[in-house]
Design brief:
By secondary structure, this protein is α+β, with helices and mostly antiparallel strands. It is built from 13 helices and 19 strands. The radius of gyration is 28 Å and the shape is elongated.
Length: 451
């Protein structure tokens, strides 16, 4: 607020100086007696020179004032949002804090309700709050149709009114008193939109990352609320597990695919249901992978276990290494009693190196394709160089006890894996690691560098 007042003060001073300058130029010309034609020509030339200088002055003031401002974005400042568990936490306090963080007076959160197939609008204008249930929003609303993923943010000032579709989006944002629209997605599923009112300055890169973090948190809070209400409405808390299965099937990445230059494959025993939760995403070339076993967490964590994923993604955007990312995410969940110290957890980063932090997971088996050997790093925090064709195997804790017995068998499978898909390699490893025809492994994840 102080910075905005300073900038406005400089603007007023600039206008006063401009008027004084024009008067100072005009008065001598008047007394010299230049006729109207020459006077207008001379005055036009002066304006053509002065206005660009004034525009540069305004830009300089904004850069100078706000570069001097101490506006450091830190995780400590936003924990009040990241720790929110219910929609009430967001609406009653969190949304107001989000607006205050960016010096914005008003905003809206539009949430899609899957049960009623309608929309609810949560509005904040200064200290005033309003909730509009079953809001009159048409299904073909241009603002809702324009979002295909969570990484695109729309700024109304940048829309081209000459393009019909962008013009409609701009008109809809104006109707909603919004200058910025941030999509709220839970993985690939559309949850809603975060709308922000007028702001005098552009968003910095760090602020954009923070907006995406807030949007991720909003998505997980409202998704978990929906799942919890579904569980309670059926009158049986056991439905918690069925809903957990449902959310995993709908929102987690596919079991086999490629993320940038990393091919991946996840497989868990069907008899164990959804014991292992996984996520893989690309953070500007830094591929992050998270493995987590919610069934070993505290009571109720199976529904709330997806909280871990947006927390991890939020801290990854701040540039934290795997160990610190995990520590911060676990700290928030443990404060709320949703996770205990005995939860199997693995988080890794793949860029030039594959570095990781693990708890109750075996160390990755790192197969170096060039030499056809394993490169070992058994530390809790480890790292190996990534080269084309390298394969990384991640197993559950049981593999720690069985590793010496199956090393040679797995190595032979990988040495003969040229031309084989990761699901084929996984099937071969599972077939080899059986005890009386029953698979020994509960879970396996395979990564391959395809640079």
């Amino acid at each position: 607020m102080w910075n905005k007042l300073v900038v406005n003060g400089y603007y007023i001073a600039g206008h006063i100086l401009l008027v004084m300058f024009l008067l100072a130029v005009a008065m001598p010309l008047y007394f010299v007696g230049l006729n109207d034609e020459y006077f207008i020509l001379y005055f036009t030339v002066i304006c053509a020179v002065v206005f660009p200088v004034l525009d540069y002055y305004y830009s300089f003031v904004e850069r100078f004032v706000f570069d001097q401002a101490e506006n450091v974005i830190s995780p400590e400042k936003i924990d009040f949002v990241l720790e929110a568990q219910t929609p009430g936490d967001i609406i009653n306090n969190g949304f107001e804090q989000i607006l205050n963080t960016f010096s914005i007076r008003s905003g809206k959160i539009i949430i899609y309700n899957r049960r009623s197939d309608g929309y609810t609008i949560y509005e904040q204008n200064g200290l005033k709050k309003r909730i509009v249930k079953d809001a009159p929003i048409e299904r073909n609303n241009p603002l809702l149709k324009c979002f295909t993923g969570h990484d695109r943010i729309i700024y109304r000032k940048k829309l081209n009114s000459a393009v019909e579709f962008e013009k409609k989006i701009s008109e809809e944002m104006k109707r909603l008193n919004a200058e910025t629209a941030v999509p709220v997605f839970y993985f690939e599923s559309f949850i809603g939109i975060l709308l922000l009112g007028e702001r005098s300055l552009k968003f910095s890169a760090d602020e954009v990352d923070l907006l995406n973090s807030f949007a991720s948190k909003i998505s997980i809070v409202f998704t978990n609320s929906f799942l919890w209400e579904e569980s309670l409405s059926k009158g049986d808390i056991k439905r918690e597990y069925d809903l957990g299965l449902k959310v995993q099937k709908n929102f987690i990445p596919s079991a086999h695919g490629q993320c940038a230059n990393i091919e991946y494959f996840f497989h868990s025993r069907k008899s164990n249901g959804t014991k292992y939760y996984y996520d893989i995403f690309d953070n500007d070339g830094d591929i992050r992978i998270t493995l987590f076993s919610p069934l070993d967490a505290a009571t109720g964590a199976f529904v709330f276990s997806p909280l871990l994923i947006p927390l991890v993604q939020s801290y990854v955007r701040f540039g934290y290494a795997p160990a610190e990312t995990v520590a911060r995410a676990r700290n928030i969940l443990s404060k709320k009693g949703l996770i205990n110290s005995a939860v199997p957890l693995f988080h890794g980063s793949l860029r030039d190196d594959f570095s990781w932090h693990r708890m109750m997971f075996s160390a990755p088996l790192c197969y170096k394709a060039e030499n056809a050997v394993f490169a070992s790093d058994n530390g809790k925090d480890g790292s190996v160089k990534i080269e084309k064709g390298d394969i990384y195997l991640l197993f559950d804790e049981n593999f720690m006890k069985l590793a010496p017995v199956y090393y040679e068998d797995i190595l032979l499978i990988l040495q003969n894996s040229r031309g084989k898909s990761l699901p084929e390699i996984g099937s071969m490893i599972n077939a080899k690691m059986k005890n009386e025809s029953e698979p020994i492994l509960d879970f396996i994840c395979i990564l391959r560098a395809v640079y």
